[in-house]
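dumping this here so i dont lose it
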């Protein structure tokens, strides 16, 4: 993992990402001499590309991990669990129950549709009343008791809901940047400079 992306003041000050790319590409740091595209340019492109995409993929991966901690659809335990979620969450639960959400939304994550599951989770949580949220937390917590998570009951369910909410929010927030231009970003910085 690259932890430092700092460009030095001197032409020969290579940062950690540039050194990593030079090693992986088996190329000298100043390659190609006199050429237009250097290892530094490749590092800049890689860093810019990786930021939002990696952040969104990590948050989506975490959402998948959260759902994987729940009983699997189609199993005996899963059928009962998802019925209890539907009963506890009312109409909001239709955003996440397997019969409505289906596996195709998780499959789409692999195809680059990185916000589908996140928006479903946010719609589900937004639609819950406080009493429904408590009931859903109890249902989720009851199945987390079986694992080695170490947090049980309603509190474990509440943690699951909060974690899912924050992970989904991170995906939704990162996805808005797809529509942001360089000019939008510069306007942001300029507005804050003038404030």
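and the seq i came up w/
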């Amino acid at each position: 993992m690259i932890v430092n992306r700092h460009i030095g003041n001197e032409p020969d000050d290579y940062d950690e990402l540039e050194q990593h790319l030079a090693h992986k590409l088996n190329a000298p740091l100043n390659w190609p001499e006199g050429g237009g595209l250097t290892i530094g340019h490749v590092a800049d492109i890689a860093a810019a590309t990786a930021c939002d995409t990696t952040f969104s993929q990590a948050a989506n991966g975490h959402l998948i991990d959260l759902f994987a901690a729940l009983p699997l659809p189609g199993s005996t335990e899963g059928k009962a669990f998802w019925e209890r979620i539907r009963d506890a969450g009312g109409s909001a639960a239709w955003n996440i129950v397997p019969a409505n959400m289906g596996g195709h939304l998780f499959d789409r994550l692999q195809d680059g549709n990185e916000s589908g599951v996140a928006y479903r989770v946010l719609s589900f949580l937004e639609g819950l009343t406080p009493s429904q949220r408590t009931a859903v937390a109890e249902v989720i917590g009851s199945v987390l008791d079986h694992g080695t998570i170490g947090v049980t009951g309603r509190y474990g369910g509440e943690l699951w809901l909060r974690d899912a909410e924050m992970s989904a929010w991170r995906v939704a927030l990162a996805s808005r940047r797809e529509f942001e231009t360089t000019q939008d970003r510069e306007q942001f910085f300029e507005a804050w400079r003038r404030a």
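DSSP finds nine helices and no strands in the chain.
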